[in-house]
Amino acid sequence: MTTLTDRLLPAAGPDGINPSRARSAVRALYTRPALTAGDLSAPLLVLPDGHSGAGSLPGAVHLSDVRRTVTRWSGLGIGGVKVFALGHDRDSAGTAAVAADNLMVQAVSAIGVAAPDLAVTTEVCGCSWTSDGECVLRTRAGGIDLDATYRLMSEMAVQHAEAGADVVSPTAMLDGSVHAVRTALDDGGLRDVGVNPNLAIHTALYGPFKALMPQTRPPVTGVDFSSNRAGPSVTPWSRPGAGLPRARTHSPSSRS
């Protein structure tokens, strides 16, 4: 049993010596690496030019301001940037997510020109690009089309990497999605691009982000695939016998 007391550490004596820190070996033992700007990655929320939300959150900028923003961050010694792009031209297949000139591709390319020393990480998920705001693509029957979702995420990852991303972050939280992304990068000759999957959770801390970069949700009760929470009715999977998606924070395939 641990008992807590109010006893303070020995104070420095008249000679200025603190017995707890006096010897160099002890100081070296308890010293921890300092947290510097170079250890941080700043979120960059890229909006179309003219969007009214620019400046409403730190890092929320128009596409035309990306170069200026990342140049300033690089000058401050920040080590990386995590890029989110406001989806546009949404449809049921998330087609714009892999369009050659979409907002994400333009932003990543701009960062590479303005601040090539920054480590660039991108979000890889369908939720910003699908018309229903879900992370997954669906079959005609309304189930989850795993194969189509894997293909979309894989194409997005390769596209981001070819535009200049150093790390891609699958965010759909579907079993097999990280492996699909890693395989696509390897097959595309992009073995040096890292994969760092995200864990999406429900918290009020995301409130300002969701307000700025909304994801349209269907007016039906079902499964929220980003949090693994089921309502009264569960949408069937497209593969017979498959169960609900299991959230996974680590995967053997997420190697860089």
Write a structural description.
There is one protein chain. This protein is α/β, with parallel strands linked by helices. It is built from 6 helices and 8 strands, in the order αββαβαβαβαβαββ. The strands form 2 sheets. The protein has a 6-stranded parallel β-sheet. Strands 7-8 form a two-stranded antiparallel ribbon. α5 (177-187) links the parallel β5 and β6. The longest helix is centred in the middle third of the chain and has 18 residues, at 146-163. It is elongated, with a radius of gyration of 23 Å. The protein starts with 23 loop residues before the first helix and ends in a 26-residue tail after the last strand. Residues 218-256 have low confidence and may be disordered.
Short structural summary:
The protein has 256 residues and is α/β, with parallel strands linked by helices. It is built from six helices and eight strands.
